[in-house]
Amino acid sequence: MIMVIGGSGAYFLDKESFGKVLWKKRIDTPFGISNPVYRIRSLAGFEFLFLSRHGEKDYEVTAPFVNYRANIYAARKCGAERIIAWTGPGSMREEFQPGDYVIPDDLIDFTRNRTYTFFENKGLGFIRQNPVFCPEIREALKSVLTDRGFRFHYGGTYVCTEGPRLETPAEIKMFRKLGGDLVGMTLVPEVFLAKELEMCYGAICYVTNYAEGIRPYGFKPGVLFEGMLPEEQKKLVDDAVKKFPEIMLSIMEILYSKERRCVCGKTMERYRRKGLIGDRWETWF
User: From 268's CA, which of 59, 139, 233, 283 has a CA 20 to 30 Å away?
Assistant: First the structure.
């Protein structure tokens, strides 16, 4: 089973654009109640899960207040082995333009107050983070975007900040010097938590704007990003979001046709061999 985690803009997409909704429910977990989970059957016949990270009607929950543990646990409880997430970061590179897609291959974590592990007060979760994102999902993303002729960049380092505020010009300068290409607020701790439950996790970014200081935008009150997203660029960004049902369905069709051969399903093997965890993942916590 695959779960799609929709980022910014997911709340505006009609779930029926992905297929027939079979059910919708919140999942009760040891870490709280998850966001609503949808089970959907595509026109091609395969079923998958969908979760909107920030809410159902609008951007209701900002990034630092998302219950990431409940959502990732819910994915596993509903049978997911793979997660494909989308997110809308800002660009710190001129060539990564608003409306472009990026398939990141690394990240730098600048969050401060989030819970990164399911294994609090236990000697578990000491897991290698290379590759950061599942290589099989990244290859599927690359194949789909190439076949459809969409403008995209293969590779990039995502800097995750705490939020909900945007970054200062000096912070963006620092992130660039550290090798960052994109700046957002959501892939951490999702990717780390997925590894603890031996799930594949891959991400696709759509560039929403240029980060602070990259372009000399004036302040415009009352609009998204307060003037950092001109109207002509906003249309490109909106169009990128509208393509996600097509993109996600195509990626899942590829992944469902192949057996998992990546290392993602063995991230906890060392603890298994030590006898610290068993075969039933629900008993690990």
Answer: 139
CA–CA dist 57, 36 (Å, integer):
12
CATH number of the domain encompassing residue 109: 3.40.50.1580
- 201: helix, coil or strand? strand
**At 29, is the secondary structure helix, strand, or coil?**
strand
Q: What is the pLDDT of residues 192-211, one digit of tens each?
A: 999 999 999 999 999 999 99
Query: Which residue has 């730098």 as its token pair?
Result: 108
Question: Can you tell me whether residue 2 is helix, strand or coil?
Answer: strand
Among 7-21, 32-46, 61-75, 162-176, the range scoring the smallest mean pLDDT is 7-21
The pairs formed by 122-130 with CB atoms below 8 angstroms and a separation of 24 or more are 123/276, 124/196, 124/268, 124/271, 124/276, 124/277, 124/284, 125/196, 127/192, 127/195, 127/196, 127/267, 127/268, 128/267, 129/192, 129/195
The answer to whether 160 and 111 are in contact (CB under 8 A) is: yes
pTM above 0.85, yes or no: yes
